[in-house]
């Protein structure tokens, strides 16, 4: 059973301390009169602390509005009344504009600072756990809440910011995001993840140095060394780029740019920009595309390949091929590729130009050597 203590952050903690002592006296008298066990308190100083309390529910208020509430098993007020140290926080809520932004907060230890309104949650053998309201990572979620585990969490209400670090895991099915550091800007409704960032979304996995989540747009911007792995059935397509953008709505394309490299099986390609369409199940590269195909046959569709009967042409289909084009598309399901726009193909001394790669194979598979 918890007793509740309300703390107005605009009032001197001298009054709070006096209120604690008065509460202790009243509770002691009630215990003596009715012999019903309530929360345990001791006004004896413990080391550098001036007051100890147990099984208490604390609540903070500022400007007449509730700013936080915490259920704790044990706590102390520091000797200089600078902060309150809490142990075994079992259920906490943090508010902004009277609306909760953090709920179900659990932590082995917490500190509440009087002058700065800062709240710190510190993990140990047990990690800090909470639900965060900073925007959806999954369109399938019916609300804006995501589950968090981390080593450390600090809330700065005056700056409308929350800082989190240490083995961060944020889950909102079917998505899971991990990172070393996170800063949430509640005013801008954004979240910045840094260091060892990894996002898993169904058949797509993203790794990057940084990742910014924009709640209003439900958009994720990845930067640094970006790697995206798309798995469609048994075929994996790996994309490397300087930057990438994706959305909560998986019907929207994933875009990437900046020294783009794509690997699919033994085939390699590079370009200036590109995008991935989940609906079309296709990777499309644009802008000065260069590609190396382990086998020439992989740049045409199955129907065109079946039409080629000449033994020499069939042999060519199995040789390594170099291609440049304005656009190159890979199927993430079958691995077939198609090129368009100023297509130029070279292979073992042969060369040909065409508007499309399939046109090259149909009309120039027996082209004379250069």
Could you characterize the architecture of this molecule?
With 370 residues, the chain is mainly β. 11% of the residues lie in helices and 60% in strands. The chain has four helices and 22 strands. It has helices at 13-34, 302-307, 311-316, 357-364; strands spanning 3-8, 41-42, 49-62, 65-78, 83-96, 99-113, 119-122, 128-133, 145-150, 152-156, 161-172, 175-185, 190-201, 204-214, 219-232, 235-247, 254-264, 267-277, 282-293, 321-331, 337-347, 350-356. The chain has a six-stranded antiparallel β-barrel. A hairpin with a 2-residue loop joins strand 11 and strand 12. It is elongated and about 85 Å long. Residues 10-16, 29-46 and 358-370 have low confidence and may be disordered.
Gap between N and C termini, in Å?
89 Å
Count the beta strands: 22
User: pLDDT under 50 segments (min length 5)?
Assistant: 10-16, 29-46, 358-370
Write down the overall geometry: elongated
Order of helices and strands: EHEEEEEEEEEEEEEEEEEEHHEEEH
Structural class: mainly beta
- Share of helix, binned: 10-25%
The DSSP helix count reads 4
Q: Order of strands across the widest beta sheet?
A: 6-7-10-11-9-8
Largest sheet: 6 strands, antiparallel, barrel
Radius of gyration: 30 Å
In terms of DSSP E residues, the strand content is over 45%
Mean pLDDT: 78
